[in-house]
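Project standup — Tuesday

K.O.: blocked on the structure for the chain from last sprint. Re-posting the sequence here as requested.
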Amino acid sequence: MDGQKTALAAAFHAGERDAQERAGVRAQMERVGAAVLRGYMPEQHREFFPLLPTLFAGAQDGEGRLWASMLCGRPGFIRSPDPVSLRIDARFDAHDPLAAALSPGAQVGLLGLQFETRRRNRANGSIVAVDDAGFAFALRQSFGNCPKYIQKRELRVPGALPAPLPDRSGGALLPPAALALIARADTFFIATAAEAAAGTAHGVDVSHRGGRPGFVQAAASGDLSWPDFQGNNFFNTIGNLLADGRAGLLFIDFEQGHLLQLSGHAEVVWRGAEVDAFPGAKRLLRFRTLRHVLRPHALPLRWTLVEPSPHLDATGAWR
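H.V.: unblocked you, prediction finished:
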């Protein structure tokens, strides 16, 4: 393990270092990164993943587009045979843009998030084997995240669920149902990558974003924007966007089970009137959709909102 810790001491790639420099936290994060970023999962992470009924994922499709998605199963469908491996007994639905992405060697970012406790842990790495039941994952980078901006939700066991409807896929233009889902969202997930970056920080990452409903603004053209609040200063997402620019977004209707997936490119607005318009914002992100998939009732689980994140009290409302 000591060798793995040493190898990750300089785990931030050039894009992340650039973002940290712009934010004035570069020296601080060099020390933090060496202590927090690991090339293995500590025991508490290995015990955490098997508790989850969901797993969030980011990867690219066969044409190089990035997508964020999620896998579902009974608790225990994720397990850790050893500190550098995960076994996931689930596959992406046939209608998911990542259905064909499960192949040995594929770079994947994984995020375990427990809405009831606001706990989340990251695992970035690659697929090493695939079979009919799922896939085996080799970990390259592991770290925990603070619970900021996570809305507390309670998983409920639904009765009879409506059957999934045919997915509606297309290019940049977003239909009214997609715009309505985004407008009421208080949570989404973003997949990014740093394909050109070398070393342990290379690969795909998936991250959580939270805010008050309305914090993501969207137009029918497929252009989205949202404020970026104070986080852990790792700048994994923003650093990847500076290095690469591709992104995939996942929006969830937690009560109805609809899923909306967008793939495109994003950029960072560091300062100016657009940033100042959002109380509490440190930056603004703009996203341009290239492809979208709306999958009504695709999610077999449902959650009830229990408590918005208390960290949102200072972030305003933008409906």
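K.O.: great, moving the ticket to review. The chain is about 15% helix and 40% strand. Confidence is low (pLDDT under 50) at residues 1-9, 196-201.
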